Amino acid sequence: MKNLYSSSALAVLAVLFVVLTMLSGILFKGWRLDLTENNAYTLSEGTRNIVESLDQPIRLRLYFSDSASEDLPQIRSYAERVWELMQELAATSGGMIELERIDPEPFSEAEDDAARYGLEAVPLNQAGDVLYLGVVGTNAVDGLEVLPFLSPNRESLLEYDLARMVSTLNQPDLPRVGLITGLPLSGGLDMQTGQRAPSWAVYDQWNELFDLTPVEPGANALPDDLDALVVVHPKDLSEDMLLAIDQFVLDGGRLLAFVDPYAEADPGENPGDPAARFTAERTSTLGPLFEAWGIAMDTEQFVADLGRALQVTVQQGQPPVRHPAILGLTGDDLSDRDIVTGDLESVNVASAGALVDEDAEAGVGFEVLMRSSDRSGLLATERLRMANDPSSLIGELGLDERSHVLAARLTGEADSAFPDRIDDAGTRSGPVNAIVVADTDLLSDNMWVQRQRFLGSAILNPFADNGALAVNALENLLGDAELISIRSRSTSIRTFDLVEDLRRRAEARLRETEQQLEAELREAENRLTQLQQGRGDSDLSILTPEQEAEIDRFMEQRLEIRRQLRQVRRELDEEIEALGTRVKIINIVLVPLLVTAIALFVAWRRRRQQHGANNA
């Protein structure tokens, strides 16, 4: 009878388990619990606000070569990460985002569509197999946005890319951007050649992506209905124009400003006169506005950097020399925490200024986007007018042993720079949303792009990311206010710190052995050269016994060191394999044993308590 009751209880439990599982699938559908360290699978607040406020339906199509990627587990894993994030967007949108997943198999209509949309086909092998991993977004009025290829290297920016696509589809009209510039961005007459100079490449990019509205530097007001304002080399702006910019920003407008202590690209008021060009005032700033926002830039000093100095050709026929005023920023010089610079590899600047956060306690936040290395210092801009030899600047440079800020994002509340001129209709305080770059020369073509002519058309070949910086900054400022709050996220791929430490230590030993091999190789070659020189010019084709012995000794050494290299690699593999085995044992054996032990202890304690109660 007791066994019958036990069997019945197990059957009831099994039925209850099945019923509860089915009910949970219905009642808790859409519920998600993100237990990752950095909430990698949870949408940021900015993304949620964008998706929850959509005004029109949006369709997102993921084109992924599922069949062609069977042997690429890392790519497949990343594709699932993309799809899961898209599902999260759709679940949060309240039915406004529709999803579709498509495998563009070879010679299919789906592959034709992928090519028509401009998705990138990445070659996989010599047989002609290609990989598609891109997203196509459309809205109700035939708007189209495309992410041609989602590289796993850009995973930290994946949420931003998708959120920006959704935001752009929700607001398809081109944003209107005002442009105030003291440089010939749109081209003009080249006084040296007498021909019309082409417009700058960055101007062409802005003009293609936005409704660009030029504003004369001598004007006293801004056009109405601007979504953003770009100010490049603002020389001699009137107080009325500075007030207009002040009010535009405090009223919620977005500002992208390029200022400079010494603008190399400034042609001066009389470009045809070399003397006038030499003495031209090349400084630009937004002084009163900067002061109100709690930042400063010394217009009489520029940043010189020995750690980032690029090589330039000063005179024809002479070898290039390092120029401490012309810098190539890479790696940690570019913030990976901000969308604007997070995906850039290199940015070139020239005679850039140093931005200083003078009032860190003020309401305006100061986030560094670009900085120099810690082998930098400040030099007077007057030295650039007279320094024909860049090496003379190196000799004068005193290192600060700290980096200098070259570009920053400003966000937060600020007061007007002109409180005495604000009437009842004006804005005395408001939010600042601006990006300030202390260099204008980075926009000129010679700093980042080469132009080539092909079949009558101009082909641009970028060698730095200056153009991407200018576009990223403006796109980010123009995006939905929630877009600006989205920062780069952590990746879903996590490394084993202990495994990486073992690999680094073994590689260090490997490098030491390789260096030993190279040293012994050089020593043997030097010895062989000495022996050959000692023999003179007679019968060079016959080796002496000494040479043969030296060669035999070197070959034995080489074989021994190669054996050591193999041993180091074997030890590395064995250490990593042993560590992996220990991790597997912990996961497969120890953790279940621990759970079982806890369960047995709880059962034993309950039985003991029940036994004590019965005895009582």
List keywords for this structure.
616 residues, globular, Glutaredoxin, single chain, alpha+beta, seven-stranded mixed beta sheet
Characterization of this structure:
It is a single chain. The protein has helices at 2-27, 45-52, 73-92, 109-117, 158-170, 201-209, 239-250, 274-279, 287-293, 382-386, 390-396, 466-478, 481-485, 497-535, 545-615; strands spanning 58-64, 97-102, 122-123, 130-131, 133-139, 144-147, 176-181, 188-189, 196-197, 211-214, 228-232, 254-258, 295-297, 301-305, 309-312, 321-330, 346-350, 355-357, 364-371, 376-380, 405-415, 429-437, 449-454, 457-462. A seven-stranded mixed β-sheet has the order 10-7-11-12-22-21-19, sandwiched between helices. The protein has a four-stranded mixed β-sheet with strand order 2-1-5-6, with helices on both faces. It has a three-stranded antiparallel β-sheet with strand order 15-16-17, with helices on one face. By secondary structure, the chain is an alpha+beta fold. The chain is globular and about 100 Å long. 31% of the residues are buried. The chain has 15 helices and 24 strands. Among the domains are: 45-170, 3-Layer(aba) Sandwich (Glutaredoxin); 176-298 and 351-371 and 402-478; 497-534 and 545-585. Strand 15 (309-312) and strand 16 form a beta hairpin. The longest helix is centred in the last third of the chain and has 71 residues, at 545-615. Mean pLDDT is 82; it is low at 537-541.
